[in-house]
Amino acid sequence: MSLDLSEAQIQKILEAYKNKREREKERYEQIKDTEDFKNYNRNKSKLHYENNKDMYKERYENKKELLKARNSYYYYKKKNDMEGFQKKHPERYELLLIGGYFNDWKPSSSSSTE
């Protein structure tokens, strides 16, 4: 199936899409502050969360160690004590080294190997 459209047809399609998006945005702006709209979206979000609670919990459990390591990294980075981080939390340091979190800090150039 080949779609050979002229320039005018392409422009017409693009203009129709643009107008549709503008109408949708205007409609949203009109109803976004109504109680019905807010309640509908809250209920929809709550239902989604309830249906996927186990998935979110599993995702958190899988990333828990990485999140701890990343938070420690940012803490020590803010204190400008990366060597302290490396000495106090070597397992977290290794985890981040594998994960590639050291883009702005080169551990090989600022720490000695001996």
Topology:
Layout: H1 7-31, H2 35-51, H3 53-78, H4 82-88, H5 90-99, H6 107-110
What does this structure look like?
By secondary structure, this protein is mainly α. The chain has helices at 7-31, 35-51, 53-78, 82-88, 90-99, 107-110. The protein is built from six helices and no strands. Helix 3 packs across helix 5 (90-99). It is elongated, with a radius of gyration of 26 Å.
Keywords, separated by commas or semicolons:
114 residues; mainly alpha; 6 helices; elongated; disordered C terminus
Shape: elongated
Q: Tell me the strand percentage band.
A: under 5%
How would you classify the helix and strand content by structural class?
Answer: mainly alpha
| Low-pLDDT runs | 107-114
| Helical fraction | over 70%
Query: What's the number of extended β-strand segments?
Result: 0
Q: What is the string of helix and strand elements?
A: HHHHHH
Task: Tell me about the largest β-sheet.
Answer: none
Distance between the termini: 67 Å
Q: Rounded to an integer, what's the Rg over CA atoms?
A: 26 Å
Q: What's the rounded overall pLDDT mean?
A: 87
What count of helical segments does DSSP give? 6
In short, what is this structure?
The chain has six helices and no strands. It has helices at residues 7-31, 35-51, 53-78, 82-88, 90-99, 107-110. The longest helix is centred in the middle third of the chain and has 26 residues, at 53-78.
